[in-house]
Design goal:
Length: about 325
């Protein structure tokens, strides 16, 4: 517990979402206390009033009383529940929905550390530096077992799975250093798999990024790898093309050979690198080899970032 917390007994709340979650938490406790208090009070009142041998009247209630009360409390609780659901769901959606143009940071979980890579290639381990008041989207994957990326100060937690990207979004609005935990039991050192998230003013974050050594643009790394692995031979071939064009691919809908379409998101790009025969683009032969075991998750991130970086300007990227 820190002084930043606007509620005692809770960790600091470093985002609007975090404060929202706290209101839901205390709102639900408040409602529960009122209901439990009401039930206990009625229980005691009736228990005493209608105890055995008491002279209290025991005649029937008029029918309209019980009917109107029944309808009244049913409708009231229904609306109360709908309101609570709406309030909580709206808050949750902000953690999975993508804000426009978020800062995308890649996270790879492994026994027992968090490897983090910023868009410009700066890497860190068990520490996540982010700018304040900027929407951040974490794209995460595990190299081995299931982990879970838990940031209590932001009230967000998301499982990190092997073989599948998951993401979580947040906009921290309070600078400071907060806990980072793994929240899924993942082996003997699970309890030590954590670190901290540092929320900095925007300018300070930029200065911090610039001061990190050896930063190489993530897309640039992907482009190097793209050439090294020989991808350019087919994907950037001029004239008759043996492989789909990658320009403008990200986010578009792709026609598949077997019929149907699929949206070219990060998961699709990753799958296409590891299991190219699974979702072949219509009009092409399934000749691409799998790069499973050849490239690490970090390298796949850089390839995916490289492919995402095309804005239709293919020539520029073939150099
Ligand atoms: Cu990783 Cu627990």
């Amino acid at each position: 517990m820190t002084a930043d917390s606007h509620f005692v007994f809770l960790p600091a709340a470093a985002s609007a979402h975090a404060r929202h979650v706290d209101w839901i938490y205390f709102g639900l406790i408040g409602v529960s206390v009122v209901i439990v208090g009401l039930v206990v009070a009625l229980l005691l009142t009736f228990g005493i009033r209608y105890r055995s041998g008491s002279p209290a009247p025991r005649g029937k209630l008029p029918e309209w009383v019980s009917r109107e009360i029944e309808i009244g409390w049913t409708v009231a609780t229904l609306f109360a529940f709908i309101f609570i659901f709406w309030f909580a769901a709206a808050s949750f959606l902000t953690t999975i929905g993508a804000a426009s143009n978020p800062l995308e940071i890649h996270v790879v979980g492994k026994q027992w550390m968090w490897k983090i890579e910023h868009p410009n290639g700066v890497r860190e381990i068990n520490e996540l530096h982010v700018p304040a008041d900027v929407p951040v989207r974490l794209v995460m994957i595990s190299q081995d077992v299931i982990h879970s990326f838990f940031l209590p100060a932001l009230r967000i937690k998301q499982d990190v799975l092997p073989g599948r990207y998951t993401s979580e979004s947040f906009t921290a609005d309070k600078t400071g250093s907060y806990d980072l935990f793994c929240a899924e039991y993942c082996g003997s050192d699970h309890a030590r798999m954590g670190g901290r998230i540092v929320v900095m003013p925007k300018a300070e974050y930029q200065a911090w990024l610039d001061a990190q050594p050896g930063a190489e643009n993530l897309a640039g790394k992907g482009r190097q790898l793209f050439t090294q692995l020989g991808c350019a031979g087919c994907h950037f071939e001029k004239g008759h093309r043996r492989a789909p064009d990658l320009a403008g691919l990200y986010g578009s809908y792709v026609q598949l050979a077997g019929g149907g379409t699929v949206r070219a998101d990060e998961a699709y790009l990753r799958d296409s690198i590891l299991q190219p025969a699974r979702q072949v683009v219509a009009g092409y032969a399934p000749i691409m080899p799998s790069f499973k075991g050849t490239v690490s998750e970090d390298q796949i991130f850089s390839l995916v970032t490289f492919i995402k970086s095309f804005s239709g300007d293919r020539e520029e990227t073939t150099q």
